[in-house]
Amino acid sequence: MTTLALVSAKGSPGTTMAALALAVQWPRPVAVVDVDPAGGDVLYRVRDEAGGPLDPDRGLLSIGAALRRGAGETTLADHLQETAFGFPVLCGVPSPEQLAGIGGAWVHLPQVLTDHPGDVLVDAGRITTSSPVMGLVSQADVVCAVVRPDLEGSAHLRTLLRSLQAPLRVGQAGAPQLCVLAVTAYKDTAAVPDLQRLLDHEGLPARVVGALARDDKGARLLSSARVGSVARSVLARSAIEPVERLAATPTRQPGPTGLAGRS
Ligand SMILES: Nc1ncnc2c1ncn2[C@@H]1O[C@H](COP(=O)(O)OP(=O)(O)OP(=O)(O)O)[C@@H](O)[C@H]1O
Ligand SMILES: [Mg+2]
Fold first, then answer.
1. Whole-number mean pLDDT of the chain?
2. Where do the domains of the chain lie?
3. Among 78, 87, 179, 243, which one is least packed by beta carbons within 10 Å?
4. Which of 36-45, 59-68, 96-105, 167-176 has the lowest mean pLDDT?
5. How far apart are the CA of 8 and the centre of ligand 1, in A?
6. Residue 142 contacts residue 249 (beta carbons within 8 Å)
7. What's the pLDDT score for residue 100?
């Protein structure tokens, strides 16, 4: 099914929050997968179905251990936890030091995500070309950079998108679609066209799919288990338009080398 990787450049523009807000509105069964190498936040931000904390031992570390025992021995579903928001999550590593525990399992993760019967929203966090999650990101159907569209955010976005051209094989058959999601004031209707103009002017082939509202109340609700009110929040409602665009992106087709291919 569709794998969408959310990435960021410098700063904390709201990538984890975006993954959760998109999942609230996603039109098909979806799981949020936290692979942020800097340490996962989903574990701390999201509650289980009963409103209690998630199990820190079940997630990226447990799937890493299972994959090291043998690819094909496990599925994503074995390591997901149901949440109060109605979609399951794969918790990330509690701290970056524990990333070493994933080891050689990284190479098997893209296939595990592809084999999952639902769509997958991957929180890959702040990314550089040397990031351990780059292999996973490069095999996603859609790579979406989350950005605050101010002067700094736009500058770092340009640098990030330039750096992603080669590892994502942008422009080649089988490459992921490159998208951008702005996080800005609800009334900032200029952000999306302005960002798109900037990227077009720079010759960066990325589509700005919309804007998520900056909404403190909605962000607080998405960090709690108060499900009923989340979907009505300004933040969650602002996710409807970008979700329509992102969820409609076709699953990519195999490239000529087969390296980028999806089964
Ligand atoms: N749309 C939003 N409206 C209001 N506050 C937000 C929004 N998105 C994120 N925040 C707040 O900004 C902070 C950073 O958000 P978040 O953790 O989602 O960013 P991030 O890009 O994932 O950061 P990191 O790179 O550290 O993982 C959090 O305190 C969060 O509550
Ligand atoms: Mg994050």
1. 91
2. 3-247
3. 78
4. 96-105
5. 11
6. yes
7. 82
Q: Is 250 exposed, middle or buried (0-12, 13-18, 19+ CB in 10 A)?
A: exposed
Distance (angstroms) between ligand 1 centre and the Cα of 148 equals 11
> What's the 167 CA to ligand 2 centre distance in angstroms?
22
Strand order in the sheet with 89-90: 89-90, 30-34, 119-126, 3-8, 142-147, 177-184, 207-213
Distance (Å, whole) CA 170 – CA 177: 8
* Structure token digits, residue 76: 């994503």
Give, using CA atoms, the residue closest to atom 26 of ligand 1. Answer: 12
**256 falls in which pLDDT band (50, 70, 90)?**
low
d(CA 112, CA 103): 16
pTM to 2 decimals? 0.95
Within the chain, strands assigned E span 3-8, 30-34, 89-90, 119-126, 142-147, 177-184, 207-213
For 71, counting Cβ atoms within 10 Å of its Cβ (0-12 exposed, 13-18 middle, 19+ buried), the class is middle
Residue 91 is given by DSSP the state B
Fold topology of 3-247: Rossmann fold (3.40.50)
What is the model's pLDDT at position 51?
A: 86
Ligand having the closest approach to the CA of 212: 1
Ligand 1 binding pocket, CB closer than 6 Å: 8, 12-17, 36, 41, 125-126, 183, 212, 214-216, 219, 235
Give the pLDDT confidence score for residue 223 in this predicted structure.
86
pLDDT surpasses 50 at 257: no
